[in-house]
Specification:
Strand content: 35-45%
Number of helices: 3
Structural class: mainly beta
Protein name: Soluble quino protein glucose dehydrogenase
Organism: Amniculicola lignicola CBS 123094
Number of domains: 1
Shape: globular
InterPro entries: 6-blade_b-propeller_TolB-like, Beta-prop_PDH, Quinoprot_gluc/sorb_DH_b-prop
CATH superfamily: TolB, C-terminal domain
CATH class: Mainly Beta
Largest sheet: 6 strands, antiparallel
CATH topology: Neuraminidase
Pfam families: TrAA12
Length: about 425
Amino acid sequence: MAVVAILPHAFAQTCATINPANAPTWASGYSGRVVMNGLRTPRGIIFDNQGNLLTTEQGGYGVRYITLNDYGGTNVCVKSNKQLISDSTINHGIALTPDGKKLYVSSLTTVWSWDYDGTTGTVSNKKTVIENMRNGGFHPTRTLLVPKNQPDVLLVQRGSADNVDAAAAQIETARSQIRVFKLADIEAGVKDYTAGQVLAWGLRNSVGVGEHPDGGIWSVDNGVDDMRRGSTDVHNTNPCEELNYHGQIQNAASPERGAHYGYPECGAVWDLSVIPSNTGLKVGTPLVIGGPSGSNTDAMCQSRQWPKLCFPSHTAPLDIKFNKNGTTAYIPFHGSWNKSPADGFRLSRVNWDAATGQPMDASTSTTAAVDIMYNANNGNCPNRCFRPVNVAFGPNGQLFMTSDTTNEIWVIGGATF
């Protein structure tokens, strides 16, 4: 028995160090390391049921299949990797059914499916399942999610066709929306994006879509650039980046199902100090972009769905993932060009009430997002700093993150996971 007891220690291994392109700063209790570099603009990231990692590479490769050696904590390294799917149009979205047998991947225009075998790392039986999602070249990514609480549907996000896309005010354009598709329907024959059920609309570009353990669907929205309030330029600190709630996916009668979230007419307040005539406004209050006219009034904006939380303007949140017990959400802020000084370029956590399925902080909070991994100097961004995109929990509880400017995948460990 003594020999058996010491075997794990005798054969313990340590992964070789990969020096990061830009070393981050860590909050107390968190640490991490680069698992893999040399990728080509990694974006979406998921784990299959065998513990293998899949990532989309926006830089022209398609989908990569990565097997890992996990020696505990952040001591994780690549065992092998290969190109799973070769398609230069694949740019972000990736999802697996909970049984691990069907893989969905997206481009600017299209969602495809494959039969997937995680043990052999192979795909077969490619199908086009959803099409007609072109927005020109603006907001090209299409985030995908198969919810665990309703595994017979696929959620597909589509952003706007311009900074302020006036046509997105018409639900029939199917832009700035999240739509729901029955898997059986799309596998039976290709569907136009407009055929999906509207889960939410009025979302400018909600690249981050995630599921709380209770089935609640949440998104993080990127607000408009160059916002004015009347004749006043307020864009450097407004509007806020929004955290929005879309109800429990398994509850078709949820009051949030099919609701309007304000765009393109409305944004929400982040910085009151620069907004003229701000009496009665607070952080998170929806208001008209530009100036009120006709039916486009602040009251109209406030009759639509309000954000559950706000984050600083132009920080570009691109994902939201929850820990297993639903007490924490992790949000990567990709960062934006439309602000001085540069902001974002960090990974943050938001505390959650698992019992209610809602954030702990009030909707007016300006401190709900707590940074856990960040660049010491955002003046080097976006080209000379890490720039987080997507996150995913691995089978042993660590958090993995893609950084597209540095072409890296990170593993992150912390006591609160």
